Amino acid sequence: MSNNKTQTYTENTIVVEKVEDQKLIETAFSIRKKVFVEEQNVSPQRESMDDEDAVHYLATVNGFPAGAARYRKMEKGAKIERIAVLNIFRGQRIGEALLLKILDDLKNEDKIYLYAQVIATPFYIKNGFRQTNNYFLDAGIEHVEMDFIK
Questions:
Q1: How would you write 41-67 as a 3-class SS string?
Q2: Nearest-CA neighbor of 128 among 90, 102, 94?
Q3: What pLDDT, in 10s, does the model give residues 38-90?
Q4: What pTM was computed for the model?
Q5: What 3-state DSSP class applies to 127?
Q6: Cα separations (Å) of 142 from 52, 71, 119, 139?
Q7: C-alpha span between 145 and 10 (Å, rounded)
Q8: 68, 57 in Cβ contact below 8 A?
């Protein structure tokens, strides 16, 4: 007996959008909590600091919540923060999709910067950032300030 079933593989659809609906913002927060609080042991208070002053983003893969990020307008420029991708979706360029969407939204800003976990610096360098000499510990994790090069 032969099996005539055909398997079709399709590309994943990644959608990144700025979210203003409270339910979608809560979904973004839950992703960040999973990544930063549960995986990296950042305190919930530290992780959610300044959320009310931020613009929030949610990434979905085939309609499933997969990643989140935010930015804030600061005195010295636009600061990208809290890029987080759920473990099961890592390696699918979701972090890059989030970053590129935010950079596009901020294209008219004079200065764009972020504080990267040192382990993630190659990702940011690949996407147009350069390291400064400002290294520091935040929530027990080594970070470095990085500037976007236009």
A1: CCCHHHHCCCHHHCEEEEEEECCEEEE
A2: 102
A3: 999 999 999 999 999 999 999 999 999 999 999 999 999 999 999 999 999 99
A4: 0.91
A5: coil
A6: 25, 20, 8, 8
A7: 38
A8: yes
